[in-house]
Specification:
The complex is a heterotrimer of chains A (153), B (175) and C (655). Chain A contains six helices and one strand, in the order αβααααα. With 153 residues, chain A is mostly helical. Classes of the chains: A mainly alpha (153), B alpha/beta (175), C alpha+beta (655). Chains A and C meet through β1, α5 and α6 of A and α13, α14, β1 and β3 of C.
């Protein structure tokens, strides 16, 4: 009897040291965790000097990540979770500014500026063309000059 | 030509904003809960864990809700002010012990005095999140209907008490 | 004693700067040769004095003099020597001294390498740089003195922030400052030109190498910072659109526009007003960055300890320098003669479009960075503008510029034809579109952003290859001769543009295809990611000079073949009681495998995060290529022409 017990003990010992175990994910639910990660990258750590919830080690950041995890596990959508936090902390907690009357300029400004810049460029270029700054060269001379310029550059 | 003045004009506008910005605190988070009903809570009391304290208990009166912790340095600064306030009896003061242990919190109150009628224990910080707490201490002025009228971020100083909180409390009490 | 010498040296330097900033400029306006002649000796004297001050501060750190407040707040006796020296620029006051030091280095360099410049121009340039130096010296001597004494002296220092205790700290700030501050030379050239009324191709040729050199340093400095963040912060991020990062990126964008604009002004005499404005803006953005870091108006992980008095001083300085220069611009720019004529479709117009696009990008970054401040100042609420905003807005803004990069170099000066351009480019276009669609599908994941990024990267690759091919084949000389006979400036352009393509490819692939896992690991556990096996072999406790650490060991194998062993650490720096992670990284051309320790869990297990970052090293390699291209362009023989050749070639355009 004792021998059998020793064998069993020995066998258990061998299993423990011999077999490499698969590392378990830190959080069991992968889908929920992906949602937590995604949201954490969009939200601000309120006690830090400009870091996302994903990057921060601060206690409040960990608490908020835990909160998000619980809400995500309940099946709340991204927008619902964000709204939940905004209701408590205001728009400051979002790193992606919501589109509101006060942020229209922020979101569309750059593109309006781009279009204005490009339009202004065209207008200016057209106007330049019309200005006769240099005396006109004959077609032949013009060709010779461009060839020379081409070779140089 | 006028258009060469444009860079200068834009610069001066930006400088204006930067100048104003020198007086602002970019890290202060104003609360969206002002003007909204105070979030509900039902937490164990600090002095008697068997008993619970809830925001409903305070309906019908104007009260101050102070979030504090024994590990918080700034709370030490505001504590004498709160003790004096509680002695004056101008407005009932309730506390919420945020992410603390009962023993250390009790010790802290024994040392510095207990200005609170009662303190709730928010051990895991969940109620704090509901109230938008991001740094202790924070203090809320809540009216008779249970609506948050004002949030003080950071320690309550004599000046804040005199200029903002007490006048507001008087107004709300007269309603 | 030594700190007092340093302090005194700064006071003397201020006096010299006052001389340097006034006499030469007035002398140039009046034609007074003696006053103009004061510029060079003043610049050299200032360099010596500021160098003495810098050495005194470095000595105070090296000798652990805790009777100096700045040393006491940024150093510690257990801090290794190289970090004690780097700590000189670890805080606000010392970094200002570094600013002044580097400004004096650039000034003295200009004083030595300016023999070919007309006296009046040189005097004005050195004078303007002297004026800037006055600002920084005055700032230090009034509200930011690095030599302030602490009485009674501290027993030991508060230690340098552990995040800064890294080789990156030795390179990143000095290189970055060499770039930022280097744009002051271009700025001084522009102001000198406005003051003197001389703005011609020769002016552009003189200022180009200085501007390019500053741009190279800034590129390298930003790259170093990004790489440092990647391996130091422990989660594999490399750009966060933090206010201070933006403060370095905006001068880079404008600086890039500037070097292109200077090329046109030099070759064609066009864009004069644009170039001058860009030069003013590039340096202005550098100064603005200085303000943002030190004033407290914006939160940033890089911000120094803030003090409203300091913010006010810098703001006043900004108003004087930038406001003054923009006023000068508004006054003098209309009189700068218009340059040569060029068509709507021509290389000039493509480069002008490049200017506009880069300027729009820089303004947009500035806008996003300052927007929360705008709203708060107007009482319209408090918002945060972070990476999600910038990532969404910036890529579409830059895309047109990247696209034009393929077309500009092959367009002819003055007059180009669209159909001809289209014909020459159709091969590259086809290849890039095809790759942009097929490659992601092969790799398993196609999104619009990935497609766009790949298209632009391969577009630039394809057009550059095409360009080189066209250039090298149209000659009867042997290949080696053909390569040599093409100017280094041209090769520099090709390499720098390819660098951008490499960078774009790296960014697109890593953002599109990176993956990570967060696992709980005990000794013997294996995790899998990207086809690799990560075996956790336990944690050992080690001691560093000023920290204790838990060092993990993770063996990476693939199909049983070992690739490497990673050693991520979780450190606790004892003085400030601050935890830090050191990631374990296995870099390669194809991908990085990255592991960092999280927290110790129960039962001797640890939480570990493992990342697979495909082609992430291409990001920094691309930046290095850009810097290399710039250096190559700088070594172009036209800048090494003897003085007599220069004078023969100069034609002054009187206004």
């Amino acid at each position: 009897m004792r021998r059998i017990l020793c064998l069993i003990a020995g066998f258990c010992f061998l299993i423990n040291i011999g077999w490499a175990e698969e590392a378990r994910p830190l959080q069991e639910d992968v889908v929920v965790e992906a949602q937590v990660q995604r949201l954490s990258e969009e939200l601000r750590c309120l006690v830090c000097q400009n870091q996302t919830l994903a990057d921060s080690h601060a206690e409040l950041a960990e608490d908020l990540r835990k909160e998000i995890r619980e809400l995500a596990a309940k099946g709340m959508s991204d927008q619902a979770i964000i709204d939940y936090l905004v209701a408590r902390y205001g728009d400051f907690v979002r790193y992606r500014p919501p589109l509101k009357s006060t942020t229209v300029l922020l979101w569309f400004g750059p593109f309006v500026l781009l279009l204005t810049g490009v339009a202004g460029l065209f207008v200016m270029l057209r106007r330049r063309e019309k200005l006769a700054v240099e005396s006109a060269l004959s077609a032949n001379e013009a060709r010779k000059v461009s060839e020379l310029l081409n070779k140089e550059s | 030509m006028k258009r060469f003045l444009l860079p200068l004009v834009i610069f001066l506008v930006v400088v204006g904003f930067l100048g104003v910005g020198l007086n602002l605190d970019p890290r202060e988070v104003p609360s969206p809960l002002v003007g909204k009903p105070a979030p509900a809570f039902n937490l164990p009391r600090l002095d008697d864990p068997e008993k619970k304290i809830s925001n409903k208990d305070m309906l019908g009166q104007v009260w101050l809700f102070n979030v504090w912790a024994s590990w918080c340095g700034a709370c030490r600064d505001e504590h004498p002010v709160l003790v004096a306030l509680s002695k004056s009896g101008a407005v009932p003061l309730y506390g919420m012990d945020y992410k603390d242990t009962r023993q250390e919190a009790q010790q802290w109150l024994d040392l510095g005095g207990n200005p609170y009628i009662a303190s709730a224990m928010d051990a895991d910080g969940r109620v704090g999140i509901d109230y938008g707490v991001y740094g202790v201490p924070e203090t809320y002025v809540i009216d008779k209907a249970g609506v948050i009228a004002y949030k003080q971020i950071g320690p309550v100083t004599e000046e804040v008490l005199r200029n903002k909180i007490l006048p507001l409390v008087k107004r709300l009490q007269a309603q | 004693m030594i700190p007092e010498i340093g302090h005194f040296a700064l006071i003397l330097a201020l006096l010299v700067a006052l001389v340097q900033g006034s006499f030469p400029i007035i002398g140039a306006a009046r034609g007074n040769a003696v006053w103009m002649g004061l510029a060079r000796p003043a610049a050299r004297a200032q360099f010596l004095l500021i160098a003495i001050a810098f050495i005194c501060l470095a000595y105070a750190f090296a000798s652990m003099d805790y009777s100096v407040t700045y040393v006491a707040t940024n150093s510690n006796s257990k801090l290794p020597l190289q970090y004690r020296i780097a700590a000189v620029w670890g805080g606000h006051e010392g970094s200002l001294l570094l600013w002044a030091m580097i400004l004096s280095i650039w000034t003295v360099a200009v004083s030595f390498f300016s023999k070919h410049l007309p006296d009046a121009m040189r005097a004005r340039i050195l004078g303007v740089m002297g004026l800037i130096s006055i600002g920084f010296l005055l700032f230090m001597l009034t509200v930011s003195n690095p030599f302030e004494r602490l009485i009674p002296a501290a027993m030991d220092g508060r230690d340098l922030n552990p995040l800064l205790q890294d080789p990156g700290m030795v390179f990143h700030p000095p290189m970055l400052y060499m770039g930022y501050v280097g744009f002051s030379v271009a700025f001084a050239f522009a102001i000198a030109a406005l003051l003197g009324g001389e703005l011609d191709a020769a002016w552009a040729r003189w200022s180009r190498p200085w501007t390019t050199m500053a741009w190279v340093f800034l590129t390298a400095g930003i790259m170093a910072g990004s790489n440092w963040a990647y391996y130091e912060l422990g989660w594999g991020g490399w750009w966060f659109w933090d206010a201070v990062e933006n403060a370095s990126f905006m001068p880079w964008l404008v600086g890039t526009a500037l070097i292109h604009s200077l090329a046109v002004t030099e070759k064609r005499g066009s864009f004069k007003a644009w170039t001058v404005l860009l030069a003013i803006c590039a340096f202005s953005l550098s100064l603005l960055g200085t303000f943002l870091v030190r004033s407290g108006v914006l939160t940033s992980v890089h911000a120094f300890a803030t003090d409203p008095r300091r913010g006010l001083f810098i703001l006043a300085f900004l108003v004087v320098v930038i406001g003054g220069s923009l006023m000068l611009f508004a006054w003098r720019a209309p009189t700068i003669a218009r340059g040569g004529k060029f068509d709507v479709v021509s290389r000039e117009s493509f480069l002008l479009a490049n200017n506009v696009l880069l300027a729009v990008a820089a303004i947009s970054v500035l806008f996003g960075t300052l927007y929360p401040l705008f709203l708060d100042a107007l009482g319209l609420g408090k918002i945060s503008v972070g990476p999600p905003y910038f990532d969404t807005v910036f890529a579409p803004l830059m895309a047109p510029a990247l696209f034009l990069m393929g077309i500009g170099p092959i367009a002819r000066w003055k007059q180009a034809a669209l159909p001809e351009l289209a014909k020459r480019l159709r091969w590259a276009f086809g290849v890039s579109v095809a790759t942009a669609i097929i490659l992601p599908l092969l790799l398993g994941h196609l999104t619009p952003m990935i497609g766009l990024g790949l298209f632009l990267a391969f577009w630039i690759f394809g057009t550059s290859v095409n360009l080189v091919y066209q250039r090298l084949r149209t000659s009867e000389q042997p290949l080696a001769m053909r390569i040599k006979s093409t100017s280094r400036s041209w090769w520099g352009m090709v390499i720098a543009h390819l660098g951008i393509a490499v960078f774009t490819l790296g960014v697109t692939i890593v953002k599109g295809f990176e993956s990570e896992i967060a696992v709980r690991m005990q000794a013997g556990d294996v995790a899998h990611l990207a086809g690799f096996d990560f075996t956790f072999e336990g944690v050992t406790e080690i001691e560093g000079p000023n920290y204790t650490a838990s060092r993990g060991q993770i063996r990476i194998t693939k199909n049983g073949v070992e690739r490497t062993v990673l050693a991520p650490e979780k450190r606790m720096y004892t003085v400030q009681n601050m935890p830090m992670t050191e990631a374990g990284i296995s870099p390669s051309i194809i991908h990085d495998l990255y592991a960092s320790l999280g927290e110790p869990l129960d039962g001797g297990a640890w939480s570990v995060r493992i990342y697979h970052k495909p082609m992430v090293e291409w990001i920094w390699f691309g930046c290095l290529m850009m810097a290399l291209g710039g250096l190559l362009a700088l070594s172009d023989k036209r800048y090494r022409l003897k003085k007599r050749t220069d004078q023969a070639g100069v034609v002054e355009a009187k206004l």
